[in-house]
Amino acid sequence: MRFLGFAAWREHLNGGPNKGATVLFVPTMGALHEGHGDLIRAARKMADEHFEGPSHVVVSVFINPTQFDEQSDFAAYPATPEDDLRLAEQAGADAVVFPGVSEMYPEGVPGQVDAIDYGPLTSSLEGAERRGHFDGVVTVVRTLMRLVQPDWAFFGEKDWQQLAVIKKLVELEFEGIEVVPVPTKRERGGLAMSSRNRRLSPPQRQGAAALFATLMRVADSHDPSAACSEAAQSLESLGFDVEYLTVAQGDSLETKWVSGKMRVFAAVRLGGVRLIDNVACRQ
Ligand code: PAF
C-alpha cells in the first residue's frame, strides 16, 4: 500500500488492527533492485517468524538531497516510483511511504547540515572522499527514525561504512531500535547490486565484475594491506579510476590490523559511475 507521507501512514497504522504493531523499517532512496529486495525479504521473514502480535514492514523512498556531494549525481539519481512500489510489495512490504521534501525538511532543504564527527567512522574513506556525505545521511536517518519509530531497521552491508555510522547514531540517540545488517546481493559475475549500476553500459557492467574479483584476491592474500597497491594498479589497467582500495577494521574503520576484524574497502569510478564495495579479510 502506498502512502505519500509518514503522517498518512501513521494514521493508517494507528487506525487499524495493526495499532501497536512491531515496526520493521527499510529506508531507501528508491530505484529499488534485488539488493533492496533482500532487505525487505529479511524484514518480512523476521516479521513472520519472530513476533506473536501484529507486525508491519514499512519501506520508505526518499532521495535525500543533503547526502549528495555532487549536484550532478543527485540530478542523475533515478526516480522510479511505480517500479519501486511493485518490487517492494512483491518482496513483502506492507507499506511503501514516499515522503515529500516538506515532511523531511519542514524548514526547507538546508544548504548545509550539522557536521557529524564519529572519528574514523565518519572521517575516513567515504567521509574523506565525499565531504559532508555522512552529515546528510545522519541528518536524514535521524529524521526517518523519529518519524517511523521502528523496532527494527534494515541496512545493506554494501554500504558498510554507512551501516557502521548508522549503528553509532542509533546507539547514541535511539534506544530501543535494533539495526539489522543484510549481506550484499551480487550480480552473477560478482558486481555488488547498486542503483548506480544501471548507468553502466552492458560491457562496462560486465567489466565491473573485476572489482569484486580484485577485492576477494586482496582479502584472501596472506598480507592484504600490502596487496592493496598492486591491486589498485591492476584495476587502473582495466580502466577503473581508483579512489581508494584499503584495509580497515569493520566496526571502527580504524586501520590498525586486528585479526578477524579486517575488511577490504574500495571506491572506484568506471565510465564516470562511482562504485563502492567491501569484503571481509580471510584472516
Ligand atoms: O542507503 C541509502 O539508500 C541511503 O543512504 C539511506 C540510508 C536511505 C539514507 O538516505
Sequence-ordered SSE layout with sheet pairings:
Blueprint: E1 2-3, H1 6-15, E2 22-28, H2 34-50, E3 55-61, H3 71-76, H4 81-91, E4 95-97, H5 101-104, H6 120-123, H7 126-129, H8 133-148, E5 152-156, H9 160-173, E6 178-182, H10 202-207, H11 209-220, H12 224-237, E7 241-249, E8 262-270, E9 273-280
Parallel strand pairs: 1-4, 2-3, 2-5, 3-4, 5-6
Antiparallel strand pairs: 7-8, 8-9
Bound molecules: pantoate (PAF).
Pantoate binds at residues 27-29, 64, 67, 137, 140-141, 159, 162.
Description:
The protein is an alpha/beta fold and 283 residues long. Helices cover 42% and strands 19% of the residues. The chain is built from twelve helices and nine strands. The strands form two sheets. The chain has a six-stranded parallel β-sheet, with helices on both faces. Strands 7-8-9 form a three-stranded antiparallel β-sheet, covered by helices on one side. Strand 2, helix 2 and strand 3 form a beta-alpha-beta unit. The longest helix is centred in the N-terminal third of the chain and has 17 residues. The N and C termini lie far apart (45 Å). The mean pLDDT is 96. The structure holds pantoate (PAF).
